[in-house]
Known about the structure:
- By secondary structure, this protein is an alpha/beta fold.
- Helix content is 34%, strand content 31%.
- Among the domains are: 76 residues, Dna Ligase, domain 1 (2-Layer Sandwich), CATH 3.30.1490; 157 residues, ATPase, nucleotide binding domain (Nucleotidyltransferase, domain 5, 2-Layer Sandwich).
- It has 11 helices and 21 strands.
- It has a 6-stranded mixed sheet with strand order 12-7-1-2-3-20, with helices on both faces. Strands 15-14-13-18-19 form a 5-stranded mixed sheet, sandwiched between helices. A 4-stranded antiparallel sheet has the order 8-11-9-10.
- The longest helix is centred in the C-terminal third of the chain and has 25 residues.
Amino acid sequence: xxxxxxxxxxxxxxSRTVIAIGEASSDGNLSVTAFGSIPSSGVRKSQILEMxxxxxxxxxxxxxxxxxxxxxxxxxxxxxSGPQVRTTSMNTQWQLERGFVHEDDIAEINARAxxxxxxxxxxxxELYPIAYGLDExxxxxxxxxLNGNLLKLRSLCIHGATxxxxxxxxxxxxxxxxxxxxxxAGTCAANAxxxxxxxxxxxxxxxxxxxxxxxxxxxxxxxxxxxxLGVGGDHVTNDIHTAFxxxxxxxxxxxMTSASALVAAEDGTIRVPVPSPMxxxxxxxxxxxxxxxxxxxxxxxxxxxxxxxxDDENLLHRLNGGIVLTGGGAALPNVVQLANAVxxxxxxxxxxxxxxxxxxxxxxxxxxxxxxxxxxxxRAATIESKPSFMDSFTGIFKGFFKK
Length: 403
């Protein structure tokens, strides 16, 4: 089993800044060889607000990787999230000259679909073909050989704000880390937890981040819908802060240690201690029922919004694989049960695909919470291994060396 050159991924999240390194083997597996993270600074809703603080966060993680794992890296792929990300459904047409679909026609319409003509303020992250059509026929997986006159292709274009992506590039470059590929965080998370069978059966992946929530719906083996909501775990913290007039730090601690996405019958008899801001202050407490009522309201609203969007696309009946939750917010107790109730189908925490090894290097973070960075490594390794990309990527990872 031979290993390829290392690949690296950077995620600048609202809660944490993460860099991971992986090495792909010839059998298609990926080994996570280094992982480092620290609390983010200068970031809100997955977007940089203070360049110096964001640069310092990246520098700190790079130093951590060098000290703990002996890696010095110069290049990385970037996970892009936040409300800056948008999705657009695109329709492309191609007039057939032969009266039937030839493989050249398929190549031509695919090439035309890639000419997205996005305005300069938008940067293409990913483009996914959804289905072909032919004259009056729709939802064709493979039109080759079929008779007709007008070939159609419906695609999903995922794009981000150029200025926001450039902010992340600038912060990374100030830390002497070059960004070689921006990727949508939502599909990265899905890459880490979905098997080919999950994609065929139909699965909705919801990645619950600190400042935003991404969701991707998969059916018949490919991506059919995606989106981002500017709501995440920080909003739950803020709701607790507002409802009980306690500090944000106290609210975050209570959320992490005592909150639940559901309200239980016994919650009314339980008091939750409020962490003292400093020694000598009189201890206070709040009702667990009141706490969980606040948390449940925000989480139920979030899932209900996503459910309504899935309903608008008439996709719920295609999600036979159920709901998969990833991200730090998925650690909230009973969040799986709440998702199951809102969507009316099976929900589960995301399990990292078996092709990935080495997650024992990730301490104090459950596997489902690092799905985005793991999926980013998988994508980077795939791009690196494609012959069509090799010329343009020659030397990109020469900045890696292991002491």
